[in-house]
Amino acid sequence: DQxxxxxxxxxxxxxxxxxxxxxxxxxxxxxxxLWYKKYPAEGPTFxxxxxxxxxxxxxGRFTVFLNxxxxxxxxxIVPSQPGDSAVYFCAASLSNxxxxxxxxxxxxxxxx
Amino acid sequence: DSGxxxxxxxxxxxxxxxxxxxxxxxxxxxxxxxxQQSLDQGLQFLxxxxxxxxxxKGNILERFSAQQFPDLxxxxxxxxxELGDSALYFCASSPTGQGADTQYFGPGTRLTVL
Lengths: 112, 114
Prior knowledge:
Chain A is mainly beta. Chain A is built from no helices and eleven strands. In chain A, the strands form two sheets. In chain A, strands 2, 4, 5, 9, 10 and 11 form a six-stranded mixed beta sheet that branches. A five-stranded antiparallel beta sheet of chain A has the order 1-3-8-7-6, with no helix packed on it. Chain A starts with a strand and ends with a strand. In chain B, strand 5 and strand 6 form a beta hairpin. The radius of gyration of chain B is 13 Å and the shape is globular.
């Protein structure tokens, strides 16, 4: 049972344009969502998070949007840079446990 | 650098063997998590410890066990290894072990079972 899904295995965008990565979840009890970036041969690096009581959180070029009614979140990267090329994972958790449920990941390629 | 260290970086062993993976959390973090990333799989939660006590368990095999020591470092023991256990094993740490914590990941240990 895949509770967190990233339906797009890959995404390619031009440098300077917007990258939009999507994530869907099935468990309405999740109350905290995170995005991680992962380069080959490295561990995941935390990017940005959002609590279920909010619908938007912004940090520099990265913005996460949460639509609880649709059980959907998205990560916007503006403007995209070649160094953003990596695998992006969304993850969800319940507030009473630190267990993270990860999506399968989306490979982002930003072309110069 | 996340501040989480894992050793060894690479491990090659044979089926039926036992290995121990080690993790040192970030300074001040009390909770440690273990995740497995197999080929073509996302990150799968294995187990969480908080201040020496097991807090949450995922789909961890009975052949696998873990513990967190008084100095807060953690070890993941994998025994009777099978080919399918070949994977990247990540350790993460966080301050309180609650869902709102940000988990910081180590660089991982790549296990290859031949």
